[in-house]
Amino acid sequence: MTALANGVAGLIAAQGPLGELTARIDDQSPLGPVESWTPALVSTVRLILSAKAEIVLFWGPDLCALYNEAYAPTIGDKHPVALGRPARENWAELWHDLEPLLLSVIQNGETVHAKDRPFYIERDGGRGEEVFFDISYSPVFEGDGSIGGALCIVNETTRRVRAEREMLAERTRLWTLARDPFLVADMNGVWLSASPAWTDILGWSEEELIGRTSKWMEHPDDAAHTQGEIEALKNGAPTLRFENRFRAKSGEYRTFSWTAVPDNDLIYCVARDVTEQRAHAKALADAEAALRQAQKMETLGQLTGGVAHDFNNLLQVVTGNLELLQRGLKDNERLRRVADNAMAGAERAAMLTQRLLAFSRRQPLTPERVDPNRLVSHMSDLLSRTLGERVEVETIQTARAWPVEIDINQMENALLNLAVNARDAMPDGGKLTIEVANTHIDDHYAAQEDDVAPGQYVLISMSDTGEGMDADTLSHAIEPFFTTKDVGRGTGLGLSMVYGFIKQSGGHIRVYSEVGHGTSVKIYLPRYHGPVVANDRDAPGEAPRQPPGGNHETVLVCEDDEKVRAYAVEVLTELGYRVVEASNGAAALDALEQAAPPVDLLFTDVVLPGGMTGADVAREASVRRPDLKILFATGYARNAIFHHGRLDPGVELLTKPFTYAELAGKVRDVLDRQVARQAG
Ligand code: ADP
Ligand code: MG
């Protein structure tokens, strides 16, 4: 290769620095004398020597290092020993990393870039320091296409990297002061640096957080959304008010609201821990929903209560007059049947009205102390008989159940309604379980529910194995007139009546249901603190054939509704009483003064026009005539004579619409009972 050797010699002659360089290469270098170098090596060396950048060249299979002056300080004391020597000898500490990299260049012809690659070198007389290089390696090809070596271009970036680190450290110093957690991540979401607030909030150590993405601690439902945000950041769009949840070391999830901006391959993020805020907002929304529901029920209650009240008066007129008609038609079989049918219709209307009153919490109640076990066992006999063979009824009582104070008739009515619902939900049969338990409603539970006081309650639950209700049905089930049953089968007043009654009785009701599994209605009745009066109510006997009549006692009827009054007067007269009437309170008091013989019984409506209620009239009348007996009539009650729907002791009440027999019985009862009491 003399031609080549000559060429190189010429080249060296022309390139002074190359001569200088080669002069420094010692005789032992595997590269041999410059004259033996290939043209590719020569031109590469020229490139090195003329380049502004710091360059080092590793050449040939032995990877001998050739470099320019600018590179010399980088290897400190190793210069000039390293020049022309295999890299393995002088870069021994790096060889582990360097070898595969260089081999991939000279064996596979690949181009490799390394950014901010750290090296630990000793320069300036042995003072070790960490330096950083941007390095790119590319293969150098010979004329025949074979790879003769690797050209390596090096830019030292130590200063920039240090400045960036400094800046990050400065930020980190600020972070330690900031309450909100900060974070720097790369474009793949890998956490590079995190402020101590993260550890404070989540409990994970810095080591656990840094060097990986947050996928491992993110709520699985949020992961997709987060990935979307990272993609957007990659495209340069900042993130605002993005929220996700991270699992803390304690296991609970905390919610963060993020602001993030992309900058130079990094993502800078500030997060705010909004866990409590979100929890409060949710609690508030729940409370508002509960309040709206309560208000809806209240409004419905007022509406239905008003309608029911007017209906009661109308029904009083209808049933009363029908009853008179029935009595008068004893001898006309055909017309008597017509009147009976009309009466049956009116009675059904009266029952519905009664339920509306119950829902609006305005039915007069007569609470009695009762052992809930006894109440329930009595019901279970009745239910097993009425629900048919396909429904199995099981009753679970509790030893030493606390007593409750409740209107027993209405409570039985309520349980019956629930049982009928259960039966309807189990067309193919199933099981009905009635359970009694003592329980405690704590402050926490009470706070979640509208209108419940914490304390001791007796829980009576009725569960079926029926079809259950979906969430929508469940949310409306208690509303009056809500029914999923066919016209004629459902009135939608069952649950609403139970609800109103239980509320009026100071209790609480909850309905749980699952489609396909069944429904459980839980009734909480406040514990009664007092002795239980043995409650052996006789089974209601047959009503006496002939209603008890009067002995010419005088009854003062005070009622504003003309037709109701006319009916009462007619019945009482027929029963053998003397009757005086009045249409308002003042008139009643006048009549009381003037009546001769004197009035024995005041029979007054509770709600009256003209400023005086029935209770006012009764009070004034009792002052004037302490021995006067009093009987109230009402469709519903406001607090005039009831306290929370309960009758004051000694007050007698007849519920509208009343029948002939009821009026007869109650009037006789009041007159007799008080006579007996006076005598005793
Ligand atoms: P009604 O029985 O006349 O429909 P309710 O007020 O008693 O009226 O019940 C209202 C609705 O609630 C019913 O139509 C039914 O859809 C649902 N429901 C009540 N109790 C149950 C139950 N035990 N199982 C399934 N659904 C029920
Ligand atoms: Mg029902």
UniProtKB/TrEMBL annotation:
- Response regulatory domain segment(s): 554-671
* Keyword Magnesium set for record: no
Positions of post-translational 4-aspartylphosphate modification: 605
Q: Where is the PAS domain?
A: 180-237
Q: Tell me the PANTHER family matching this sequence.
A: HISTIDINE KINASE (PTHR43065:SF49), SENSOR HISTIDINE KINASE (PTHR43065)
Q: Which PROSITE patterns does the record match to this protein? A: HIS_KIN, PAS, RESPONSE_REGULATORY
Taxonomic lineage of the native organism: Bacteria, Pseudomonadati, Pseudomonadota, Alphaproteobacteria, Sphingomonadales
Superkingdom per UniProt: Bacteria
The catalytic activity of this protein is classed by the Enzyme Commission as 2.7.13.3
- Extract the Pfam families matched here: HATPase_c, HisKA, PAS_3, Response_reg
- Carries keyword Iron-sulfur? no
Signal peptide per UniProt: none
> Mind telling me what this protein is named?
histidine kinase
Catalytic function, reaction form: ATP + protein L-histidine = ADP + protein N-phospho-L-histidine
Q: Name one GO molecular function term.
A: phosphorelay sensor kinase activity
Q: Which SMART domains match?
A: HATPase_c, HisKA, PAS, REC
Against InterPro entries, the record matches this protein to: CheY-like_superfamily (IPR011006), HATPase_C_sf (IPR036890), HATPase_dom (IPR003594), His_kinase_dom (IPR005467), HisK_dim/P_dom (IPR003661), HisK_dim/P_sf (IPR036097), PAS (IPR000014), PAS-like_dom_sf (IPR035965)
Histidine kinase domain residues are: 306-529
Keywords, A to Z?
A: Kinase, Phosphoprotein, Transferase
